[in-house]
Design brief:
By secondary structure, this protein is of the alpha+beta class. The chain has six helices and three strands. The relative contact order is 0.14.
């Protein structure tokens, strides 16, 4: 019997990862060159942190963050969503895919998670537990 599931329990495939990275690079270059002629996008610098692609490669979720505090994340995502068709057209022109993926923009919370991990590791109790694991066990 054929496997008809549309997802993998192991995570994204190599093709999904490769296509996501190609879209990320392409979008980053398009935004850096200022190819989309929208005043809202021209006034802000946006970093594309990650792109995750659906199994069928038809939907790409783009995680973005504005740099240097020039604009809020919501404003940046609204500007990108407004120009999603133009960005999609430019991405598909530079890539050779059977279908041009729909671009969905979401805030990139990687930096927030990194800060939370730093805060947790700085906790005195966690530091004590880490130091205790490094000590040799007492023999009985």
């Amino acid at each position: 019997m054929a496997n008809t599931r549309s997802y993998s329990a192991k995570g994204p495939s190599q093709r999904q990862l490769r296509v996501g990275e190609m879209i990320r690079r392409t979008l980053s270059e398009i935004l850096a060159r200022g190819e989309v002629h929208d005043v809202a996008l021209q006034d802000m610098s946006i970093t594309v942190g990650e792109v995750s692609v659906s199994v069928d490669l038809r939907v790409a979720t783009v995680y973005v963050m504005p740099l240097m505090g020039g604009a809020s994340v919501e404003v940046a995502i609204a500007a990108l969503a407004k120009n999603a068709w133009e960005l999609r057209k430019r991405v598909s022109a530079e890539m050779t895919l059977k279908h041009s993926p729909e671009l969905r923009f979401r805030p990139d919370d990687t930096y927030n998670r990194l800060e939370e991990a730093r805060r947790l590791f700085a906790d005195p109790q966690v530091q004590r537990d880490i130091a205790a694991k490094d000590l040799p066990e007492a023999e009985e």
